[in-house]
């Protein structure tokens, strides 16, 4: 029996390795990996300014610093500045803005972090704005209460992500409440920040920049 025990342990180890290798990544995980999710444990904090073109003249900007290890968020907006803990019993109003802005910058990583969605995909789909051939990945969040685990503040919404051959996002369409129609923006100006990649510019169907990020710093 003593002689059989090492052999049995070796067989179990080989089986567990084979099982892991035989389990392919889902498409959402492949997208997250394309932007460096496997290196995210090297990131201590991410700071950035989120900008949106509200009309032809006015731009709204918000500054954020997400201290990942400490689980705190620094916020500076037009009227106030403060830091809050993500573990607090009651989160401040700015947290909804933090979640929204983080999706615009880090949606590829949300695909690995979030749990409350289903997905489907189609090959050889033309992107809505530029007409580029792509793989369409549809992410549909389940309905539920606001700030439901793994679903953010607006559960029930859907996103159509249009991917290139490297599983990078070319364009995305946001469909509120998983409706039949939505609005589309591009994902452009990819840059490497330490161990991860981020897309900084989102252009609208009119060709104008709608949301963009400045002052990005990853430590």
From TrEMBL:
- What's the domain of life for this entry? Bacteria
Q: What is this protein called?
A: Lipoprotein
Instruction: Name the species this protein comes from.
Output: Algoriphagus taiwanensis
